[in-house]
Amino acid sequence: MNLFSIFEKLIHKVNKYSAEKILLDCVDFKILAMPLDKNFTILVQGPIFRNNFKFFSGIICEYLKVVGEKRIIVSATSMTPQCIDFLKEKNIRFVVKKPKSSGPHNIFYQASSVLSGLNFCTDEECIVKVRNDQFIQRWDFIDAYKAQVEDGKVFAVGFSFIDPAYHIGDMVHWCKKELMEKIWNNVADRKNIEHMHSIYQGAFPATCNTWAKNDLPPEIYIGISLSETFMSLDLSLDNYYRLIREKLILCSNYDVGLQWAKHNAVLDFHRVWTSGYRPTINHIKWLQISRSNKYEK
């Protein structure tokens, strides 16, 4: 059992007040950089329970400073009466919908909350999907990458270049509504997930064998879905690099000032996470790929 698992078990054992205090003390609720262009919608998704309401309400109050209530949508698989009253008071649109099955690592829950929230959006909107257990401090990435997103690329936070391949983070996604619907519809169905697993196992058997019960993490299913959306299900390292170069904008959690309460609480957890979350390594590798002609068509 790793340190993070021990910490999670400890959180569940302490009382409600202590658990909330730990989460709130680990995050600095402060927007560090505002976007100049505010023509986008923030979709906040994930379950909301009693012991994370204060954290959730804290990030919502900060996001209201970024775009205002008409540009925020909250979509959850579960929500407390206290949360419902709070959102009504703030005039924020919300929806609660829970699928029958959670899927591998709750991916069906996540897909359901994303797709339900998108029903509020027009086809022309660009959506920034964020999780309700994380807080984004820097929003100047909007101005930096707006033109590329409007041109059809997908912005994502958290990734791995080599091992595991097709590991694209599910923490922050920013793209046009049509693209986001395709990406998350692909992982909302069990048959699709099983088919993706089979294809990935054929392409990267060694990676599959490293995961318990051959159960892939949701980030890999997201990566495969992106490949299916933009290219094909012909998975290879070369095609993965081509997907990265031509269709994605990949950033680390530091680039958006991502605060993750339960991970910050354990030795600044996302500093010692996988290679996909060490920006120095990734940025060097990214420069090598982006400046190379090897993966051009």
Describe the structure using short key phrases.
alpha/beta; two-stranded antiparallel sheet; 297 residues; Spore Coat Polysaccharide Biosynthesis Protein SpsA, Chain A
Please describe what this structure looks like:
This protein has 297 residues and is of the alpha/beta class. It has one domain: Spore Coat Polysaccharide Biosynthesis Protein SpsA, Chain A. It is built from 13 helices and nine strands. The protein has helices spanning 3-13, 16-25, 53-66, 81-89, 107-118, 141-150, 177-185, 190-203, 205-209, 218-230, 237-247, 261-264, 279-290, and strands at 41-45, 72-76, 93-96, 126-131, 134-136, 154-157, 173-176, 248-251, 258-260. The strands form two sheets. Strands 3-2-1-4-7-6-8 form a seven-stranded mixed β-sheet, sandwiched between helices. Strand 1, helix 3 and strand 2 form a beta-alpha-beta unit. Helix 5 packs antiparallel against helix 7 and helix 7 crosses helix 10 (218-230).
- CATH names the topology as Spore Coat Polysaccharide Biosynthesis Protein SpsA, Chain A
Number of domains: 1
Largest beta-sheet details: 7 strands, mixed
| Structural classification | alpha/beta
- Over all CA atoms, what is the radius of gyration? 19 Å
Strand proportion, as a percent range, falls in 5-15%
The parts where pLDDT drops under 50 for at least 5 residues are: 10-19, 265-297
Separation of termini? 45 Å
CATH class: Alpha Beta
What is the string of helix and strand elements?
Answer: HHEHEHEHEEHEEHHHHHEEHH
- Helix count, DSSP H or I runs of 4 or more residues: 13
Q: Which term fits the overall shape?
A: globular
